[in-house]
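User: Some background: our group keeps a shared notebook of sequences we're curious about, and every so often someone picks one and asks for a predicted structure to add to the entry. Today it's my turn. The entry only has the sequence so far, pasted here. Could you supply the structure so I can complete it?
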Amino acid sequence: MRTEKEKMINGEMYNASDLELSKARDQSQKALTIFHQTQKLDEKKAILKEMFGTTGQNFHVNPGLIVDYGFNIHIGENFYANFNCTLLDICPITIGDNCMLAPNVQLYTATHPLDPTERNTVIEYGKPITFGDNVWIGGGAIIIPGVTLGNNVVVGAGAVVTKSFPDNVVLGGNPAKIIKVLHL
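Assistant: Of course. Here's the predicted structure to add to the notebook entry:
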């Protein structure tokens, strides 16, 4: 029988109040508190290397970061997250090389049942988010569960991305749509 953590990571319905998951969330919040309090960049980087599932060697994350667990976050080389980014990682968030998140970007892998009776329980589920290489997410954009963005995608500020998109496009709006194709 799978643990609640295994079910969560696999995108299956799981019990969010599970003791192992509660402890993991507490641990990540403690690590984030230290991350936000330290001024030393090498210490900040070490905290995230320990917390995240995988990282490249070169990355930078500004203060204000919010995560659920951290262990489901996988970032490539030259990752940059500006101030106040939220990465809700009940399922994997996989980000390629040379990707940038502007201030207040929100990546949500967590979701809930549509049926109100089920939704009022502690049972929930999620869907992974995946970015290719050279993805730039504009300020205040929201990426919802299950979205995959190809290489060289640019998401305009304030966009709400509700579905997946291929390589070499610029997205904008709510819901986001292709506003330009990049001929690279």
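Suggested note for the entry: Residues 4-181 form a domain with the UDP N-Acetylglucosamine Acyltransferase; domain 1 fold (CATH 2.160.10.10). The chain has four helices and 19 strands.
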